[in-house]
User: Fold Formamidopyrimidine-DNA glycosylase from Arthrobacter pigmenti.
Amino acid sequence: MPEMPEVQGLAQFLGSKLVPEDGPPAVVRDLQLGSFAILKTAQVTPAALAGMSFTGVGRRGKFLILSLEGVHLVLHLARAGWLRWSDAIPGTVLRPGKGPIALRLRCAEPDGYGFDITEAGTRKSAAAYLVGDPAEVPGVSRLGPEAFDVGREQFLSMLQGHRNQLKGLLRDQSFIAGIGNAYSDEILHAARLSPFTLATSLTDEQLADLYTAMHSVLETAVKAAAGKPAKELKDAKRREMKVHGRAGETCPVCGDAVREVSFADSALQYCPTCQTGGKPLADRRTSKFLK
Assistant:
């Protein structure tokens, strides 16, 4: 799933294309749907966007916000969605239900550029909203503060009283916006904390380490994504990962093998030496071997 750094990278890339500093803004030719399920709210019909100019591209949490003349196209790529840019997007009309393209936006001629929102797999969760104000999108209105907007004292105050496990808390979008499965693994590894540690059990030193790790991991990821075209962002993210998605590989910090805990529809990765005192965490697939 694209998380804050990748969505920030997408926003910067699209901004350079749709609202360039050295030229006029792009104008919408049409917005087509390859999947009717992707459009969740349409205060303005897709057809009404034709002829509108882009005024800005931004981000809130994991939501991509494309602003036009009084209208905002808000996109959430969910688990398997992605944005595919083309300098010469096909002029063919999308056939709903045919292929992986859920949404296509084409800009006016003569350039004919634009992008597709694609979604792999059978579980379709990507979402698009056409609204007058991004805050009208339910997922946006529930978001907590952005990680970079949270100071150290505020962060410590936010954690006080939470009985949640750190992994779940970092992924809670109402707590801090933009962190998902991948970067929560990376932050906890950098902070040398178990994903199952309760927030209430942290010492002052551990709280400070967690705050520092959150900022350093996300800052590195944002820098890695900056200036890259959409097609390169996924690979840039993978290259930066030290434990996430690297089960069975060697931890670059201590040399131990990265382990995994699987759940019904996801998994987390961690280093036992760095994070759990050398003890493997019980996994539902292998816990019978760890007793």
